[in-house]
């Protein structure tokens, strides 16, 4: 099925502000509510949210595989269970209704008033009911930086890193949507040459990531190949995988992240379909040594997505502290999903897969405070002349992302989270 909604020449009768993240070529999906409307599925265009439940009731989505309960729901999972062909058909239909040469909806102002809501007046909600969450560790630059800091600069990467997309299973229950604050976590830390102590973490960090959401996969025992992988990916969102570095340092040997990671991970609320990102597909960085056969792939499987991180102190302006790009990732999403399922692990509808921290080749493209300040030895100066080594209480961390080419910008909005003091 063709991706008609990606036509770069499409124009909409809905005016979209310049440099807006949500032109007609995007049409991301999310869950919203208002004081008068219960949680339901929406699509974003420009400064408006389209109520798909109302659009369905009014008959504009007839002859599609979707029922009213697929839109009158608290999560996108019902919609995603229709698979890639179903969601592609839906996005194409909405695109046609919004295109300037189609008057079906445009010429009925009463129906426009029923289905279009100003984005500033809605509350965005958790978009996905996440069954399982896996976080990868797929940026070579990030892994090299961490290995240089904590191990041997001459052997920064662990022996398995260039052979497999390393990952771990995280905690789905503490994944939260943008706008929900988190508290500084408590746990054990170990001062140098002293016994462990208990208390609030002193080294709270963000991790700049993307995450992808899956359609229903295969049965237990079957695997997904790199050729098939993108057929099982619904879309992507921004992902801030918070970390408590001092707790992590003490606990991660021998089994890896635990309390240092499961206190909160934040996602953006609009899920940008993988279909919408196809015009921005690029080559994956060269992989040496040659990967094993099940990890080999053909075509462009990485994506050119510009990423930015800001810190906003309370009662002050935000400061941009990082600019990176998703295309820097050494292991791409197709390889991550193929590796995740190669042992027969069953992937379910609504599983969340974090990319791992996204760091680039330059110091301003590092995707964590750990790297940007090099373990706190190079504090970052903010616009208000304060400094940051890690994240302070009442700081808000904001991540933004967008792809841009030929005058079309496909964006994700933002994921914004305030850090509150420990309870």
Walk me through this protein's architecture.
It contains eight helices and 26 strands. It starts with 28 loop residues before the first strand and ends with a strand. Strand 20 and strand 21 form a beta hairpin. The chain is globular, with a radius of gyration of 22 Å. The model has no long low-confidence stretch (mean pLDDT 97). 45% of the residues are buried. The strands form seven sheets. Strands 6, 7, 8, 13, 14, 16, 17 and 22 form an eight-stranded mixed β-sheet that branches. The chain has a five-stranded antiparallel β-sheet with strand order 4-3-2-1-5. With 423 residues, it is of the alpha+beta class. The protein folds into two domains: 121 residues, Fumarylacetoacetase, N-terminal domain (SH3 type barrels); 288 residues, Fumarylacetoacetate hydrolase, domain 2 (Alpha-Beta Complex).
CATH topological fold name of the largest domain: Fumarylacetoacetate hydrolase, domain 2
Structural class: alpha+beta
Question: What is the CATH architecture term of the largest domain?
Answer: Alpha-Beta Complex
- Helix % is 10-25%
The CA-CA distance between the termini, in Å, is 52 Å
Overall average residue pLDDT: 97
Q: So what's the overall shape? A: globular
What ranges have pLDDT less than 50 throughout 5 or more consecutive residues?
none
Count of helices?
8
Return Rg in Å: 22 Å
Q: Count the domains.
A: 2
Largest beta-sheet characterization: 8 strands, mixed
CATH class of the largest domain, anyone? Alpha Beta
CATH superfamily of the largest domain: Fumarylacetoacetase-like, C-terminal domain
Number of strands: 26
Kindly estimate the percentage of residues that lie in beta strands according to DSSP: 25-35%
């Amino acid at each position: 099925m063709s991706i008609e909604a990606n036509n770069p020449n499409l124009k909409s009768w809905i005016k979209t502000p310049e440099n807006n993240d949500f032109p007609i070529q995007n049409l991301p999906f999310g869950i919203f509510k208002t004081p008068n409307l219960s949680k339901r599925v929406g699509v974003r265009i420009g400064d408006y949210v389209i109520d798909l439940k109302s659009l369905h009731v009014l008959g504009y989505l007839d002859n599609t595989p979707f029922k009213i309960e697929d839109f009158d729901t608290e999560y996108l999972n019902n919609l995603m269970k229709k698979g890639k062909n179903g969601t592609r058909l839906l996005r194409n239909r909405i695109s046609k209704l919004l295109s300037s040469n189609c008057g079906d909806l445009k010429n009925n102002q009463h129906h426009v008033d029923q289905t279009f809501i100003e984005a500033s007046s809605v509350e965005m909600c958790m978009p996905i009911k996440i069954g399982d969450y896996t976080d990868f560790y797929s940026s070579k630059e990030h892994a090299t930086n961490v290995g240089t800091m904590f191990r041997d600069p001459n052997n920064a990467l662990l022996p398995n890193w260039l052979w497999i997309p390393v990952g771990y299973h995280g905690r789905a229950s503490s994944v939260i949507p943008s706008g929900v604050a988190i508290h500084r976590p408590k746990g054990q830390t170990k001062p140098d040459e002293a016994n462990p102590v208990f208390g609030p973490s002193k080294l709270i960090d963000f991790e700049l990531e993307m995450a992808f959401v899956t359609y229903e996969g295969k049965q237990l025992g079957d695997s997904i190949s790199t050729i098939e992988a993108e057929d099982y990916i619904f879309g992507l969102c921004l992902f801030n995988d918070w970390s408590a570095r001092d707790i992590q340092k003490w606990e991660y040997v021998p089994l890896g992240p635990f309390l240092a990671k499961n206190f909160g991970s934040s996602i953006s609320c609009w899920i940008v379909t993988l279909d919408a990102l196809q015009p921005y597909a690029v080559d994956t960085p060269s992989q040496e040594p040659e990967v094993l056969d099940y990890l080999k792939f053909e075509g462009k499987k990485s994506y050119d997505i510009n990423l930015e991180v800001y810190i906003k102190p309370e009662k002050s302006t935000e400061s941009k502290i990082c600019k990176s790009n998703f295309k820097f990732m050494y292991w791409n999403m197709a390889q991550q999903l193929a590796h995740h399922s190669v042992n027969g692990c069953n992937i379910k509808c609504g599983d969340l897969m974090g990319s791992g921290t996204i760091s680039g080749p330059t110091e301003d493209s590092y995707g964590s405070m750990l790297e940007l300040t090099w373990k706190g030895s190079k504090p970052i100066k903010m616009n208000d002349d304060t400094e940051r080594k890690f994240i302070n209480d009442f700081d808000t961390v904001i991540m933004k992302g967008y792809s841009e080419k030929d005058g079309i910008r496909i964006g994700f909005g933002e994921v914004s989270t305030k850090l509150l003091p420990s309870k």
